[in-house]
């Protein structure tokens, strides 16, 4: 497990956030799962399976987060798999995880049964190591996907299977092949964020606008009461979610001596640095474009034209608004507002 995934796992393991995730996704905002009803369960699974010849095979799997949810007589295992990248075999992987959870329950109950109790079982029950009236604890798994790229893998078993060409044959086979579906949580594209009651709401909202740095900064500034006092654990997760681990670390190191991190300030500095770097990059590109254009239009005019174009295109790509671009062009090239507006309008689209 990488450091980034470990940070996400620790952050999401908080009972308040974990229950909020399930309430927001599964119960659509209704406060059904309470933090005090959750108990951390072992995510590491070692299963020993015997074949007909009594040869033993060990199967080892590790789940990111597993919680026992006990609400009165109800007991459910709630799991969360944190996924940074698309996993094209996620359906089969999760199906195996859930199956191993059920196999583990069967084996555990068999171990706990007294010898006398086993002797009273019927032959089929003894062979099955499972009584007719025994019941399994339900398992629910959410796949928390937080990459910027859209999930383009299958979300069910049917989407991974190779079907015959004939429609009639395919439909017939489907009747005998049970489907399995993953519960995908596309963290960066969730709607109805009002369903979340913890700081998941702020972080999920942040993920929705991380593709535009200016929009992201504006979002954080509107919620500065939260983002100006972020704890260390949340800061580490934000670095992972924003894919800015190294750059954010350099900015935050300037704020040593504080117990919390001012993410608004860190992002503002990162944004301004990026815009300035983009302008410089645009200037260099402009000079190169200008040289090429200079053959026909005159070297000076060509370079100037290319510099404007490159700088404006870079700023637009970086999420700078048209109004801010005009102001920066005025200062950078020492021209009037009217001239700046003309150049920005020329190359903005």
Give a description of the structure.
This protein has 349 residues and is an alpha/beta fold. The chain has 2 domains: 3-192, no CATH class; 209-347, no CATH class. The chain is built from 15 helices and 7 strands. It has a 5-stranded mixed beta sheet, sandwiched between helices. β4 and β5 (74-83) form a beta hairpin. α1 crosses α10 (232-242) and α8 runs antiparallel to α12.
Element layout with pairings:
Blueprint: H1 3-12, H2 15-25, E1 38-40, E2 44-50, E3 56-62, E4 65-71, E5 74-83, H3 90-112, H4 115-119, H5 123-128, E6 139-145, H6 167-174, E7 183-186, H7 200-208, H8 213-222, H9 224-227, H10 232-242, H11 245-252, H12 263-297, H13 299-317, H14 322-333, H15 337-347
Parallel strand pairs: 5-6, 6-7
Antiparallel strand pairs: 1-4, 2-3, 4-5
* Alpha plus pi helix count: 15
Summed over residues and divided by their number, the pLDDT gives a mean of 82
Instruction: List segments where confidence is low: pLDDT < 50 over at least 5 consecutive residues.
Output: 294-303
**Major sheet details:** 5 strands, mixed
The helix/strand class is: alpha/beta
The proportion of residues in beta strands is 5-15%
Radius of gyration: 28 Å
* The number of domains: 2
Spell the H/E element sequence: HHEEEEEHHHEHEHHHHHHHHH
């Amino acid at each position: 497990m990488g450091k980034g995934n470990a940070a996400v796992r620790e952050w999401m393991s908080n009972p308040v956030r974990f229950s909020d995730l399930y309430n927001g996704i599964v119960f659509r905002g209704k406060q059904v799962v309470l933090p005090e009803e959750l108990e951390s369960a072992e995510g590491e699974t070692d299963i020993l399976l015997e074949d007909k010849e009594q040869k033993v095979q060990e199967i080892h799997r590790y789940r990111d987060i597993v919680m026992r949810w006990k609400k009165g007589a109800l007991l459910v295992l709630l799991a969360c798999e944190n996924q940074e990248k698309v996993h094209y075999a996620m359906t089969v992987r999760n199906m195996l995880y859930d199956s191993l959870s059920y196999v583990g329950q069967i084996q555990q109950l068999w171990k706990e049964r007294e010898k006398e109790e086993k002797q009273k079982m019927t032959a089929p029950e003894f062979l099955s190591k499972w009584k007719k009236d025994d019941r399994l604890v339900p398992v629910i798994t959410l796949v928390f996907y937080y990459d910027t790229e859209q999930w383009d893998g299958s979300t069910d078993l049917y989407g991974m299977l190779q079907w015959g060409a004939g429609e009639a044959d395919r439909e017939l086979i489907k009747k005998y092949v049970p489907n399995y579906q993953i519960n995908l949580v596309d963290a960066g594209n969730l709607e109805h964020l009002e369903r979340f009651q913890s700081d998941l709401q702020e972080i999920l909202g942040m993920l929705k606008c991380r593709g535009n740095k200016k929009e992201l900064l504006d979002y954080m500034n509107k919620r500065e009461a939260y983002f100006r006092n972020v704890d260390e654990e949340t800061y580490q997760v934000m670095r992972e979610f924003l894919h800015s681990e190294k750059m954010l670390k350099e900015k935050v190191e300037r704020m040593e001596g504080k117990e919390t991190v001012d993410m608004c300030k860190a992002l503002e500095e990162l944004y301004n640095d990026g815009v300035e770097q983009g302008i410089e990059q645009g200037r260099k590109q402009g000079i190169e474009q200008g040289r090429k254009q200079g053959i026909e239009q005159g070297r000076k005019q060509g370079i100037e034209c290319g510099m404007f174009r490159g700088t404006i295109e870079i700023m637009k790509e970086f999420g700078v608004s048209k109004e801010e671009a005009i102001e920066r062009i005025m200062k950078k090239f020492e021209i009037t507002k009217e001239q700046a507006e003309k150049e920005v309008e020329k190359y903005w689209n």
